[in-house]
Amino acid sequence: MDELREQEAANLAADWSDISLGLRKDLGQQLFNQWIRPIQLGSFCAETGTLDLFLPTEFSANWVQERFHDRLSLAWKIARAEVRQVRIGVHPGRRKLADLDLRGEDGFGHRAANDAPQPLESIGSEGFTSSIGLDPSLTFSSFVSGTTNVLAKNAAERMAKTEKPQFSPLYLKAATGQGKTHLLHAIAHAYLQEHPRTRIFYCSAERFMVEFVQALKSNEMIEFKARLRGFDLLLVDDIQFIIGKASAQEELLYTIDALLAEGKRLVFAADRAPQALDGVEPRLLSRLSMGLVADIQPADIELRRAILESKLTRFAPLAVPGDVIEFLARTINRNVRELVGGLNKLIAYAQLTGQDVTLQLAEDQLTDILSANRKRITIDEIQRTVCQFYRIDRSEMSSKRRARAVVRPRQVAMYLAKVLTPRSYPEIGRKFGGRDHSTVIHAVRLIEDLRKRDSDMDGDVRSLLRQLES
After folding, report:
1. 181 annotated ligand-binding residue
2. Which of 49, 75, 188, 201 is the most buried (most CB within 10 A)?
3. Phi and psi at residue 133, to the nearest 5°
């Protein structure tokens, strides 16, 4: 009987692993980590076809029940036909507040990185129970800077220095995957190194809002406020998720005022500027923007190259040719996270299959990432841009003239057409006055060679790539 129960538990765990993988892809990493990852498998009753899923708090159980119950039920019914009902609740063995021991924790469910175990007054398991910690790999030394993010990095480094910062709060504004979360972690690591006994708290605004509501329901607001205001460095990520939560906004406002009055440091990050946060009280907007708003622009191609090069040392002695790095840097341009993810996927595939990393392998294995990033650039657009750049008439792209002042721009346009569009050599030839595919091949190879030998030509091509990809 025990063996049967163990086998059933193993089968449920295997099914949950498959279901979780699909949910992570559907919901995205943030929602998955917030609500699905904490789910624990309960028992399955074969007679009623009921499967129990447990979450750590009543609030999170209600949230998942309201928003994800149908999706979870469907996923389980697909995974195993005998599941007819999915029941979501709080684990019956969850200890009461009076039984909890928070020794060595900061009172919000986080163990302070610098604190030795010591008794603390408990505010209950519902006060900042998330286990979000600091990623040891996200430091200033691993952050690759360039013209698009140098202001934000310098400001973040200044915030982590021993001397009092010139500005507080620091507000990091960047689109998804451009490095704002990396800088938040880096600030915490650097400040902790300078102040070993400091107390640091890092959370997402969504987590702040959830735990605030839970503390309100549990009548623990006094403890909640006291603990929150006891930190020396407060870092809040994705502040846009606090939109519309009036009571949570008010508490965050009072917390900011209290910490600033004591000379403590605050850093916020969001995907938009403070003024673009619709549904946020004017007083809170004023506090968020009163220090320094540092904008992180999308990484340009030079920074994308540098980021890829910085990652290559992890994969030695596996060789990654320069044309592959150039291809990835040029093509995966939406955000840095996708760029690094594409490189990791390519390297992993090559290592697991024993293949060499080549441009063809990159094109074959990264089709989803590449198609999502590839801007729809047309040959007509390329010809128009090249003609404007070299100050020649558009008709010269299709003419038979052989003058060098016309031939070289035409060859550059052919090269860019091959690099930036999915068109074949014959298709490109037809757009250039019906030229043979061998002429296009010759032009592409010539420009590739000239870029290696002639810095002026390489500079021209880089300028044109920036114009066309912007």
Report:
1. yes
2. 188
3. -120, -170
pTM: 0.57
What is the C-alpha to C-alpha distance for residues 425 and 437, in angstroms, rounded to an integer?
5
Sorted by sequence, the CB contacts under 8 Å of residue 399 that are 6+ apart come out as 406, 433
Res 97: pLDDT: 29
Give the H/E segment covering residue 174.
strand 170-174
22 annotated as a binding-site residue: no
The maximal CA–CA distance of the chain, rounded, in angstroms, is 88
Q: Is the pLDDT of residue 169 over 90?
A: yes
Q: In what order do the strands lie in the sheet with 233-237?
A: 200-204, 233-237, 265-270, 170-174, 292-296
The two three-digit tokens of residue 324, written as one number: 């592959």
Query: Does 180 count as an annotated binding residue?
Result: yes
Domains of the chain: 2-90 (3.30.300.180), 150-296 (3.40.50.300), 301-373 (1.10.8.60), 379-469 (1.10.1750.10)
SS3 state of residue 86? strand
- Spell 297-332 as b/e; 16+ CB within 10 A means b: bbbbbebbbebbeebeeebeeeebeeebbbbbbbbb
**Spatial distance between the Cα atoms of 328 and 344, rounded to a whole number of angstroms:** 11
